[in-house]
Amino acid sequence: FTQGKGRPVACGDEVAVMLRGSDAKGNSFDEKHDETKPYRFTVGSGKAYKAVEQAVVGMRLGGERTVDAPP
Question: How does pLDDT run across 32-60, given as a tens digit for each residue?
């Protein structure tokens, strides 16, 4: 992953992330998110996949992570 800068994200923060859902073979399964536009949500609101909400906690602006989640 890539470490960003600034204050770490915490529950209750509004975030904007670039999100692409794909399976182990690389096939896209998340067609509701446009890969060219950030997906915005409030951490802890339940609006994003649980694995994504958990993954962004502690991230900083500009950081990058890959999230592996069970189906």
Answer: 666 678 889 999 999 988 888 999 999 99
* Nearest to 52, CA basis, from 63, 62, 61, 65: 65
Whether the CB-CB separation of 55 and 67 falls below 8 Å is answered with yes
Beta bridge partners of 64: 2
Interatomic CA distance for residues 31 and 63, integer angstroms: 23
11-15-17-20 Cα dihedral, nearest 10 degrees: 50
- By C-alpha distance, which of 14, 19, 11, 12 is closest to 61? 14
